[in-house]
Amino acid sequence: MQFGVKVRGSLRTTKLFHVVLSALTVALLGGSTAVASAEPEKTPAAGKSLVVIGDSYTANGVRLNGDEKECRRGPSAWPTQLSQLMGIHGTPEFMDVSCSGASIQSQTAYNLVHEARLADKAGAFGPNTKVVTIQLGMNDTWGTNKTMLWTAMDPCILNLTDGCGLEAAEQGRSPDYRAVTGKEYADRIKTVIDYIRYYAPQARIVLVGYPELVPPQTQKLCVNILGVGAFIQDRGAAVVEYMDRLDRAQREAAEILNLEFFNAKPITAGHGLCSDDPWVNGVFDPRADFLGMPLHPTAKGDAVMAAGLRDWISR
């Protein structure tokens, strides 16, 4: 099979890939468990220089059980590389509470309030806190549709029969991109933002955008397989629109709440899934990180994110 050839051969081949990729996705992102959003108790603290809150695009570490409390973070994840560039890695000045599968407020094992509470109990927020980054939203549900992006794998993304077009949102087979707005995003994070601002008044709060997964203005979804072929969903407009709207919602929420927004799209442009030089992992693709988390940044992609954020923070 040559690179770029669609995996459309036998029904057995399509089903086999369907099962493998679905299993990998569920295993890596984990299941879902509700977390109470009680206000964390505050103890006086000086605060840490860099505090990171986020999901699997932040942690980039395998979490096989969605109910487990331990969150493994990859050694090359952008927070780790950023802390190294800032000279605070391995010191009390750095706190990373990101976790795979985390959301802002949906029914996942870790959410924004939960991660903020963990950071707060560790003394992360105080007068000496300089930067707080938040990268969340990809795993949320929106509107009345309870489908998350990773639960859309079977009914939408890998569904070659029905496709994953715009109608999939109304049918409940994909996240409802229509309900993703800057106001809704701002409303969901405002309580935690107000809390951080009160206890860490000098901190710069940065909403971190997601890297490019597919080129802009496309309807195709693509995943590299072994570096020699690709699974292609020709009708993937619902997912593409969801990611575009999420990016816009983060930007607008930052304006509404007077936060900073770090746009990751320009610095990762042209290096998404199935590109000639991917900074996002496919499935066992030797051109990226062979054993890296599928559909998540490579070490190179995270290095670019870390350098970009370092430059942003240094402005």
General description of the model:
The protein has 315 residues and is of the alpha/beta class. The chain contains 10 helices and 7 strands. A 5-stranded parallel β-sheet has the order 2-1-3-4-7, sandwiched between helices. Strands 5-6 form a two-stranded antiparallel ribbon. A hairpin with a 3-residue loop joins strand 5 (221-225) and strand 6. Helix 3 packs across helix 10 and helix 7 packs across helix 8 (237-256). It is globular and about 55 Å long.
Summary tags:
two-stranded antiparallel sheet; alpha/beta; 315 residues; five-stranded parallel β-sheet; 10 helices; disordered N terminus
Secondary structure layout plus pairing:
Layout: H1 11-29, E1 50-54, H2 56-59, H3 78-85, E2 94-96, H4 112-121, E3 131-135, H5 153-157, H6 167-171, H7 182-199, E4 204-208, E5 221-225, E6 229-233, H8 237-256, E7 260-262, H9 265-268, H10 299-314
Parallel strand pairs: 1-2, 1-3, 3-4, 4-7
Antiparallel strand pairs: 5-6
Helix pairs in contact: 3-10, 7-8
Structure described in brief:
The chain has 315 residues and is an alpha/beta fold. The chain is built from ten helices and seven strands. It has a five-stranded parallel sheet with strand order 2-1-3-4-7, sandwiched between helices.
Count of beta strands:
7
Average pLDDT for all residues? 85
Distance between the termini: 48 Å
Task: Report on the biggest sheet.
Answer: 5 strands, parallel
Structural class: alpha/beta
Q: What string gives the helices and strands in order?
A: HEHHEHEHHHEEEHEHH
Integer-rounded radius of gyration = 19 Å
The helical percent reads 25-40%
Strand content: 5-15%
- What is the helix tally? 10
Q: Unreliable stretches, pLDDT < 50, 5 or more residues?
A: 1-38
Q: Overall 3D geometry?
A: globular
Strand order of the largest sheet: 2-1-3-4-7
